[in-house]
Design goal:
The chain has helices at 2-20, 34-50, 54-63, 81-84, 104-116, 131-138, 145-160, 166-185, 189-196, and strands at residues 69-73, 92-96, 121-127, 201-207, 214-217. With 218 residues, it is an alpha/beta fold. The protein has a five-stranded mixed sheet. A hairpin with a 6-residue loop joins strand 4 and strand 5. It starts with a helix and ends with a strand. The relative contact order is 0.12.
């Protein structure tokens, strides 16, 4: 497929940058200020522009996007769908919130991806060692974070009926929270109708932040 060729072109371009010294091996970047953070972003965009992506960007701008999956996942910086699924721009319609929870805006975004862009697959992807779930287990939250905790708490309460050790509670709650998000998506008349017609499939997944494996929960 042409789209996949673009992905290979991007990988080749990045490899070329690496050989020229512009891109090093993946590393953990630490910055001490907003100015340093902004500098990293600007340099990163320059590296992106120097890659062989112009044709793809023009194609997407002129002909529109055709993503093949909606991915609803956590805002955690360690959980980047475009990276861990080895994709390039235009392939994934990504929706991210802390704890991969959804409400009206996120469900509406998923509806747009499926109904208007023709995406056939929605993946709700949680992850191991989720900070939002850990916070819900401990009950500690401030500000609007409490709204996220409130959404995850039912999954935590269910997990506590089965598990007693805190780590086990967190792990089970992460799984139950994925299912809870899927249930909320199915409250959408648009999504439930399209799923019943077989025009979209909604599944769960979980990413292990340590070993990098995504387990699809079909």
């Amino acid at each position: 497929m042409k789209k996949k060729c673009y992905g290979l072109m991007l990988c080749a371009a990045l490899a070329g940058c690496a050989s020229s010294g512009k891109v090093s091996e993946p590393r953990r970047i630490t910055v001490a200020s907003a100015e340093e953070a902004l500098k990293e972003l600007k340099e990163g965009n320059e590296e992106f522009l120097s890659g062989n992506t112009a044709e793809l960007r023009i194609d997407l701008a002129e002909n529109g996007q055709t993503p093949y999956a909606v991915v609803i996942t956590c805002s955690d910086s360690r959980v980047a769908p475009e990276v861990l699924f080895h994709t390039t721009v235009g392939e994934l319609f990504t929706i991210r919130t802390a704890g991969n929870v959804v409400n009206e805006f996120e469900i509406g975004s998923a509806e747009y991806g499926v109904e208007h862009l023709g995406v056939p697959l929605i993946v709700v992807m949680g992850h191991s060692n989720c900070g939002a779930v850990n916070a819900a287990v401990s009950g500690e939250a401030e500000g609007f974070i409490q709204n996220i905790i409130d959404e995850i708490t039912p999954s935590v309460e269910e997990a506590k009926k089965i598990e007693t050790e805190e780590r086990a509670i967190c792990t089970l709650a992460e799984n139950l929270n994925i299912q809870n998000t899927i249930r909320k998506l199915r409250t959408s008349e648009i999504l439930s109708h399209l799923e019943a017609e077989g025009r979209v499939k909604i599944i769960g997944a979980k990413y292990d932040i340590k070993d990098g494996k995504v387990e699809f929960l079909e």
